[in-house]
Write a structure and sequence with these properties.
With 465 residues, this protein is of the alpha/beta class. Helices cover 31% and strands 27% of the residues. Strands 3-2-1-7-18-17 form a 6-stranded mixed sheet, with helices on one face. A hairpin with a 5-residue loop joins strand 22 and strand 23 (406-413). Helix 1 (18-27) packs parallel to helix 8 (318-334). The longest helix has 26 residues, at 81-106. It comes from Deinococcus rufus.
Length: 465
Amino acid sequence: MPDPTPQTALVIGAGQAGGPLAGALAKAGWHVTLIERGHVGGTCVNEGCTPTKTMIASARAAHFARASHDLGVDATPTVDLPRIVDRTQGIVQAFREGSEAALRKAGVTLLRGDARFTGVRQVEVTVNGEAHTLSADHVVINAGARPRWPDLPGLDGVGAMASRDILLLKELPAHLLILGGGYISLEFAQLYARLGSRVTVVEAGDRLLPREDADVVTALQGVLEAEGVTFRLGAQARRVVRHGDTLSLDITGDGGDESLSGSHLLVAVGRVPNTDTLNVQATGAQLDRHGFIVVDDHLNAADGVYALGDIKGGPAFTHISYDDHRIVRDALLHGTQRSTEGRIVPYTLYTDPQLGRMGIDRTQARSLGRPTRVYTLPMTSVARAIETGQTAGVMRAVVDEATDLLLGATVLGPEGGEIMSALQLAMQGGLTATDLRDTTFAHPTLCESINNLFMTTPETLTGQD
């Protein structure tokens, strides 16, 4: 006999974990209320993956038109930024409306408002200025994160933009200054350089992307510099002021003091969790020193309370948020105790060439504690890359010496994320380096280069460095 009293759930945030989980629970017969103060779809659909990758496609088309001379074709692109933005926002709107329609079809009650915990599994929701108190058997927090705004004198008065703001800009910056040299920064730097802006990136650290192998980062930086992006590394921003249509960013670095003059300023120095107004401590949950919700390996934050996606800290990727939803879905609907422990975290940086990464890299292998082999193949040795004129980058794989099993891969090259994904499947399927060396791939594909990668002479690391 079915349970006469269906379970109830409150989900705060309609991102890439909260939305799918709300729909799954509702389809299973639960009474589900989803609270969202902004747009359905979360960061990914509205101001992250969808709009940025859509605009990157337009910038890539402009770049290939300019570079087509090398392939025997002459073309001169005309960039129409308003059309690019309108196309991008049209796709965003379609994805957003599709997600919302799916939730309503599943039977989810969608409330537009601000949520604040007033007790264990008890939430006060303010809708159009009116407060309502709701409670449920289970509460899921997927409220995400937002761009961090640094404490920089003058920043609030110069019209600086976060990543979500620049996506709506219909005026091509004459000189775009970007504060921060992380993953988001590099995508925007190449995007706007390809659209025709002058771009300067200011990074406080002495190198870009410190979590990646240094030689891989150097290769990527060289590509971006060849396309006109300028970098100021080891540079601390001291203040920023605007003079009419121009702003000045004062920085201090190894070379002394410098004032950079630009037309627009993008701030991309990290993100902070949206926990400041939630009062999550009322549930018994704890926050770490950065304000992220502390969870266990099953995403439990407190009794009957789960935290999913960016708000819990850790890797801030759409696919990780979506897998978070599967972990909690399977626990609530099927009694299956899946865990985040040992979860492979693949990711792709959508520069051109793409940087695809999963598992450990060469730097991490040095201190792994056991011997490994590191295989490296430059893209200049990949037939398909040569044929298409995209030879910048490198493929790299780390293999366990004792088992011949793959431990990680880094691919900087054309469709680097796709090649990395093929290697991830091989890793999850238990294929050895020997298997991959001898597998028959279609010719001439980029994935065929996996054969060649494992035919190179590897570097042997003791894992004790």
